[in-house]
Input
Amino acid sequence: MESISQLTISEARDKLKKKELTSLEITQSCLKSIETSKILNAFSVITPEIALSQAKNADKRIASGDAPAMCGIPIGIKDLFCTKGVQTQAASHILDGFKPEYESTVTQNLWDEGAVMLGKLNMDEFAMGSSNETSTYGAVINPWRSSVSEVPLTPGGSSGGSAAAVAADLCLAATGTDTGGSIRQPAAFTGTVGIKPTYGRVSRWGVVAFASSLDQAGPMTKSVRDASIMLEAMASHDRKDSTSSNFPVPNFEAALTGDIKGKKIGIPNEYRMDGMSEEIEKLWSIGAEMLRDSGAIVVDVNLPHTKYALPVYYVLAPAEASSNLARYDGVRYGHRAKLKVNDNIDEMYSKTRAEGFGKEVQRRIMIGTYVLSAGFYDAYYRKAQRVRTLIKRDFDKVFDDGVDAILTPTTPSSAFPLGEMNSKNPIEMYLNDIFTVTVNLAGLPGISVPAGIDVDGMPLGLQLIGKPWDEGELLNTAFVLEKALKFSDKPKKWW
Output
């Protein structure tokens, strides 16, 4: 049974159509894998009753000949997506016991396609973190282990539960969200594929907000083909989301032609940074060479404002977070602090928020409140917005010059041990996002593809950045890179 959960979406789809397997069998296999993998702490809530019911309905659809690509595919849902009647906490104590009375647009789209929900996946609290250690549920453990140590490693964040679940074959795919790299960085750390689509391609309605101008949902999968299948199912125009685009959703899988002859791939000079791992530098060069061998033209490009991306992100994202998280006050739902007899409403707010929010969330709320305050708004927030415009302009210029995609590393290192960053300056943790935040600031699509193994046996990823609304071309380039790299390693089961 366990081997069934190792299937990709495309493999499972083909077997379902040929009647070689049923959705119920695949779902039962995944539920068994989840049950025996609790040490990874990837799932915060398991929903076997819902999963089995949806699987039976999917089998009926398949039998009737009405079977979209995602029909009968068991997936995990990041705890940031509201799911009707199912606990949705954003991995925060402040949302204890919250069960939405509505469904997010993304999850509704997936259920309409016949996908099966196995449960909710662990994550960093309110998606704030790069290691999945800020969760009220506790840290997620990466299913990969170093060849030189048995120390538990981070799966990355904030979509660490999603990445770990896909890498450990607990589900066939998972939803993630990406505000500054939270799909792509954990994908790189776990040897999986993660795509952040163009801002506006996928509805944000019903997704708990972190930074509204940066957040974007996307799929985390075992292959580029799977990413294309799932992205098409997730994407739609949504009138409930004012930032949702009205562009038609193409058949992304049909775009995987494997032909990139004549396509121009940019290598940004600014991403060559001091202290970057030699292995990553070498892998980057190999990736560029493979694209060149596939017929692409590889050119150097300049993104001069990249050096400002991290400080800009860590001004804008906390500013938006401080506004979005003001709604959690203990009045209508979630956690409420116990009050003394003479406590007033202000004390209720402050005590509830002090108890409900973890330290990293508190830190970012305070930063956000500071940069939005009257004396510092112009010096920090307004200036950051202007630099953000310049960062986007850099990308626009490169694409206007004929570049079709940009190749970079996904992360500056492989997965690091859990707890390693606890005693360090928070900025050291934030540096994990150094190659990914520019994509969010510019609203562009980006994808991480597993590219190789470092000296300690840990996976490394390469990132491709595409033109806005051109996910099909980006996925095709990633498809070519994936085939050339031939990455097939899996974590050795120890859990």
